[in-house]
Amino acid sequence: MANIYYDKDADLSLLDGKKIAVLGYGSQGHAHALNLRDSGADVRVGLYEGSSSWAQAEAAGLTVKSTADACAEADVIMALIPDTKQAAVYKSDIEPHLQPGDTLMFGHGFNIRFGQIVPPDFVDVSMIAPKAPGHRVRELYVEQVGTPCLMAVHQDASGQAKAFALAYGKGIGGTRAGVIETTFSEETETDLFGEQAILCGGVSNLIEAGFNTLVEAGCQPEIAYFECLHEMKLIVDLIYQGGLSYMRYSVSDTAEHGDYTGGPKIITDETRQAMKQMLQDIRSGAYAEEWIDENVNGRPWFNQRRAQARSSQIEQVGKQLRGMMPWLNAKEIE
Fold first, then answer.
1. I need a surface site. Which of 65, 76, 216, 246 has the fewest CB within 10 A?
2. Rounded Cα gap, residues 55 and 44, in angstroms
3. HSE (CB half, 13 Å, CA atoms) of 275?
4. Separation in Å, CA 309 to CA 142, 195, 210, 221, 303
């Protein structure tokens, strides 16, 4: 069973006297910075010069400095900038300012797991990774509840790395819901696998394949959209609330029967083997190497594939139909 820690297991006073630099003010960065500040921590936000988030962070009452200046004065550095930019920022703005006794933290283990960042042995290296988008991390904190988090220690130079990580987790509200102990490797590998096999790659391709199957069979695209994409939220919400059994309990018997008969025809032995190969590629570093090289070379394949996906038929039909449903608060990418 996993080790799970709550408020009673974390000592918030370990943050006292620590200057914390939160690098980045995106989805997670803004939530960490605001929650820590409201928990009484001494926080500054580190951003690159000219960042569009600079004024936003200042308007929220936070101290904002350049990334290098924030790191220079900090005892604790939490890197919440994109994975693909972390290694370069580490070399230029973080590493030169690390001192014995400092703590380097991450919200995701990618760069440590795949050796893109190799911290000196005199600093603590740990991770607090909320299992929700940043806006929910902030909303739930304000509501006096919390977001479950993952916690890992990669390097314990001080002997207090785990205790401090838990204090940080408490500072952002995580121990209210529970902080689960893991490792940088497990967090990174499961996160990448989940994104590729299920949450993003699996679901989006299954939706589009179903949509195309119906359209190619002569069904109206609008009807296919509702059946294969729009209603997905109804099912996911049921699963989110009570697991697969509650979803099956809540839908019709016909739908539940279709679950049992149709699912195995889609998720075949070949699919399972592909999942195993996907996980192997993640663990071996092959996927990371491919993604890092793609970024080094200017993202030619990624940018082309993104453009193709955004111009697909299901996206065009969806934009039209979402316009009929103002209650959705639809978000459109131009």
1. 216
2. 14
3. 13
4. 37, 17, 15, 17, 10
Burial code (b: 16+ CB inside 10 Å, e: under 16) for 137-173 equals bbebbeeeebbbbbbbbbbebeeebbbbbbbbbbbbb
Beta carbons of 152 and 182 less than 8 angstroms apart: yes
Task: Report the alpha-carbon distance of residue 147 to residue 141 in Å, rounded.
Answer: 8
CA–CA separation, 205 vs 291, rounded Å? 20
d(CA 240, CA 319): 26
CB of 134 closer than 8 Å to CB of 197: no
Q: Please give the model's pTM, rounded to 2 decimal places.
A: 0.93
pLDDT tens per residue across span 245-256: 999 999 999 999
Largest CA distance in the chain: 67
Cα dist from 83 to 109, 206, 217, 295, whole Å? 9, 27, 42, 11
Specify the amino acid at residue 119: P
Residue 4: beta bridge partners? 180
In this predicted structure, the answer to whether residue 107 has a pLDDT above a threshold of 80 is yes
Give dist(CA 198, CA 182) in Å, integer.
Answer: 21
Q: Of 50, 57, 41, 51, whose CA–CA distance to 103 is shortest?
A: 41
CB atoms within 10 A of CB 191: 19
- Residue 108 · residue 129 · CB < 8 Å: yes
In whole angstroms, give the CA distance from residue 240 to residue 306.
Answer: 28
Q: Are 250 and 168 in contact (CB under 8 A)?
A: no
What does the alpha-carbon distance between residue 193 and residue 226 come to, in Å, rounded to a whole number? 28
**What amino acid positions are annotated as catalytic residues?**
108
